[in-house]
Specification:
The structure is a single chain. The chain is of the alpha/beta class and 350 residues long. The protein contains eleven helices and seven strands. The strands form two sheets. The chain has a five-stranded mixed β-sheet with strand order 1-2-4-3-7, with helices on both faces. Strands 5-6 form a two-stranded antiparallel sheet. Strand 5 and strand 6 form a beta hairpin. Helix 1 runs antiparallel to helix 2, helix 4 packs antiparallel against helix 5 and helix 5 runs antiparallel to helix 6.
Length: 350
Amino acid sequence: MALALAIVSFSCTGPIVGTLLVEAASGGSQIGPIIGMLGFSLAIAIPFALFAAFPGWMNSLPKSGGWLNTVKVTLGFLELALAFKFLSNADLVLQLHLLEREVFIAIWIAIFGALAFYLFGKIQLPHDSPVTHISVGRLSLALITLSFTIYMIPGLWGAPLNLISAFPPPQHYSESPYGVGFSKLGSGGGSATHGDLPEGAHLLAPHDIMAFKDYDKGLAYAKKVGKPVMLDFTGHACVNCRKMEQNVWVKPKVLDLLKNKVVLISLYVDDKRPLPTNEVVESKLKPGKKLKYIGEKWSELQTIKYKANTQPLYVLMDHKENNLIDPVAYTPDVDEYHNWLIKGIGNFKE
């Protein structure tokens, strides 16, 4: 169980601890890493320390019974839902397209729908106590679960599902990126095509932000059109990246800047595609190790140049690769992010 917990939790704790260690190793202020690691350790240690200091508290905990089995079953449904989330992350990183957005949402609808029926007492498991009545708490949780299940249903037809935007695959990782019945090349009313895009560029559905995945091609295009570059250090399995893209980037004033005022270069640090043979080099951070994958290349660039290894990280730079403004990380406040873009773009000179 401890090994399983370490493996499952690493995807969340690794970026936090990694950033603190990079900051500590960079030779800057040590106050931030100290406070960060202190908070991280306290969160893990406090429950055990309190029960060790006050063992009498253990006696005040509720006794086990039928209610505890209900709790275990409910947590089992949640664990199953999160298991598919981790499988989805692996599918995204490897770009296998086995768990695309519609499939993922359908699975979650089935899981939470079954949980709702269980909480209503319509499904009985072998170790459950007979349900003679449903408590107010259980009924409330059942209604919330049923409401959540109904909320997800429109997602099968392209609804953004902003409340859970960080969990399903992004909208462009879908059988129908622009919604069911609409195709940029079909008869759904769209007329734009990808034929006019510069080499190496693609459109991020459904909002059609033009982006590059290749650093050099994106920089060359920025020089050609005379626009500043926005580096987007991101990841296929990055939760906060999806939150930014689906809750902040889509706002009209931000979307206008991303589409018309900058050249976006998205660098996926978990991209598992192999690098061309002539680009395989030795790591500067780990001498003796070869950088074999595209994601490793961008991850090392972010760590060395910007002293950070968490995503997202947004960098506005000129054609000489100098920062126009200090980089920012996860910024859910739309006005704050918009002001950062405006200030950085305003500092740009060709």
